[in-house]
Amino acid sequence: MSKKILIVEDEIDITELVRIHLEDFGADIHLCNDGLMAMQLLESQDFDLLILDLSLPGLDGLEICDRVRRRDPFLPILMMTARVDEADRILGLEMGADDYLPKPFNVMELVARVRALFRRVDAMASPPVRPKTIIIDHLSIDVEKRDILVGGKTVLLTGKEFELLLHFSRTPGRVYSREQLLQSLWGPSYQGYEHTVNSHVNRLRAKIEPDPAQPHFIQTVWGVGYKFRDNAARRIL
Ligand code: CA
Asked: Ligand 1 being an ion, which residues bring their Cβ within 5 A of it?
């Protein structure tokens, strides 16, 4: 599958040039020229790479970088800026960009950096993990048989409830918005509403949580969505 790249830059000449060259390289390119709109895109879709300019209308690149890092520690971020004095901050722990390109740049240099970033990401991705069973505290998920045990007792889930649980349990601690969950589990063409997600989460909680009013596994992140408990005892078999 082609890599999905979001380019956030308000200088149209630059975005067009970068888009043309990265499309040659087979990537699926999305453009955005405003910081606030970029944040909305990043909250509702998954990207494989974010190319981010520092100076933007709406919300600047550093702020976007910081917000993205809080939600997703793994999304590769390449920052572009004419403000060379900011390089240390951009690449440092403070902002956590993966690479940095001073402006003006040669577009071939940018393509080379993008290739290098993807090589690093692909090398870091472990060989396809196909766990048979995921055990989290007293919850056991048999991925192949689609069996769920809670405290040793079988719990029957619907197909969607199972997919939702599996989706969460694979990425403990990662916060998902309702929109992201709709996209991932029901598909982009699903004409659904966010309360579809709420009602599935509530039914799932009723089945797996010892006390659904105080969820142990699927936790609400106010104003954002849900996440799976990340400080649980976890074993993958
Ligand atoms: Ca700019």
From this structure: 10, 53, 55
